[in-house]
Amino acid sequence: MTLELSSDVMQRLLDEAANAHPCECCGVLLGTASRIEEVVPAANVHAEPARHFEIDPQTLIDAHRAARTRGPQVLGYYHSHPNGRTGPSPRDAELAAGDGVVWAIIAAGGVTFWRSGDGGFHALPYVVRDR
């Protein structure tokens, strides 16, 4: 599967990470099928936000509730790695449910996308398209 997203969505992810630095930003990815249409920023409520992230539970509840009633669907989650590591960290692997959701990791001025599945994370190709 190749993910699609607009240049606006890509820029929003990069801006979120830059604005949160030196802490990790985090939030929810919304869309349909394999297209990320929107990002919903969340407060990072982790006790150590410079090294870890925890999406504000109310943001998660609101996103899932909205998806049930009107869409778009919750495709996954995003967070940044201020240390510049572009792949999932060991802590990310511990947190992943292996449920097939998309994880976006913003680091080193770019974004990588991953699917959480059996056996860990798998890199996802993506294309930036404006329609």
UniProtKB/TrEMBL annotation:
InterPro entries: JAB_dom_prok, JAMM/MPN+_dom, MPN, VirAsm_ModProt. GO terms for molecular function: metalloexopeptidase activity; zinc ion binding. The keyword Hydrolase applies. Residues 3-131 form the MPN domain. It holds the Pfam family Prok-JAB. One of its GO terms (biological process) is proteolysis. Keywords: Hydrolase, Metal-binding, Metalloprotease, Protease, Zinc. This is Peptidase. It comes from Qipengyuania gaetbuli.
